[in-house]
Amino acid sequence: MKQFIYFTIKSFFIVILLAVVLDYAYTTVYLQTNKRNKIEAVYNSKARNYDVVILGSSRANNHFVSEMFEKKGLKTFNYGMSGGHLFEADLLLKLMMERHYKIKTVILEADLNLSNEHKAEGIAAGFLPYIHNSEIIKEHFENEVNFKELYYIPFYRYVKYETKIGFREMFFSFMNKKSKLLDHGGYYALGNKKGNMKNDIRSLKPLQNKYYEDIKAICLANNIQFIPVMTPMCENTKGIDYFEKVKQAYPEIHNYENVVKEDQYFSSCGHMNDTGARIFTARIIQDFFSKQSDTTAPF
After folding, report:
1. CB 275: neighbour CB atoms within 10 A?
2. Average model confidence (pLDDT) across the chain
3. I want to staple 125 with a disulfide (CB 3.0 to 4.6 A). Which of 98, 161, 229, 291 is the partner?
């Protein structure tokens, strides 16, 4: 019996030690790379200067063509993250400020993502390798229900989110293998292949979203022009009055939902293809960045 107890205790400490060693090894790799995704590209960066930074979900990532801003002489990067919520956009902007980014304008896609204040599990996982090295990240996650496990149990976060920050991603980071997520100024173009061309958003309700308010406050405190916009959806959307509800809750958000309508410009109901994105981006540039137009959009 004593031998069994001794073996159990010994095994327990070996597992803990292994977890600590693996946690340190994985974290060390992630602290050295900036070519895999937008989170590590910001975290492991130094001060950068941008005329335009774009934040939001896939409806930012797939809708704002960075190249078109660049052609107007505006240094631009699209930091929209597919699957992301305002939880992640807010935290990414905080990290930019910590790294002393100089940003003239933030364009925030603020529409469907206003309807929740949850983190996007898969996207938020990208911040977790740095949770012990960043007070900002720690504080941002502190109110999450699984914070204690993620923070205090060594290697737990890498096991729980294995598909996002586990061995495969760590190995690619170690090999310094570049992903496509940072190409084209962060803009990810969609093709013409049609996904679901119907959508039902009748159950969504815009909240007084704390992460939206936080982003707005950060911009104000750092003298950054803040341009929140709603982006287009296909014609076959039920509950399209959601966008009017957003406008009522946040009059400062510019409603561009109906700027692009026809299905031929969409890859799926909530995401425009490259042609639609270019039409939309041209309108944004015209309304906010053209010297020939007013600085305030008419929406």
Report:
1. 17
2. 94
3. 161
Per-residue model confidence (pLDDT) at position 1:
74
Q: Tell me which residue of 150, 154, 158, 130 sits closest to 32, measured CA to CA.
A: 130
pLDDT at position 292 is 40
The superfamily in CATH containing domain 37-146+179-288 is SGNH hydrolase (3.40.50.1110)
Residues in the chain: 299
Picking from 72, 56, 67, 142, the residue whose alpha carbon sits closest to that of residue 106 is: 56
What percentage of the chain exceeds 70 in pLDDT? 96
Tell me: the pLDDT tens digits for 150-185?
999 999 999 999 999 999 999 999 999 999 999 999
**Cβ-defined contacts of 155-164 (< 8 Å, 24+):** 155/19, 155/20, 155/22, 155/23, 155/26, 156/19, 157/125, 157/128, 157/129, 157/131, 158/22, 158/23, 158/26, 158/128, 158/129, 161/121, 161/122, 161/125, 161/128, 163/122, 164/122, 164/125, 164/126
CA distance 297 to 253: 10
Residue 209's nearest CA partner among 131, 92, 95, 112 is 112
Q: Decide if 280 contacts 272 (C-beta within 8 A).
A: yes
Question: For residues 85, 88, 90 and 91, what is the CA-based torsion angle, rounded to 10 degrees?
Answer: 170
92-102 per-position pLDDT tens digit: 999 999 999 99
Q: How many CA atoms lie within 13 A of 139 on its CB side?
A: 7
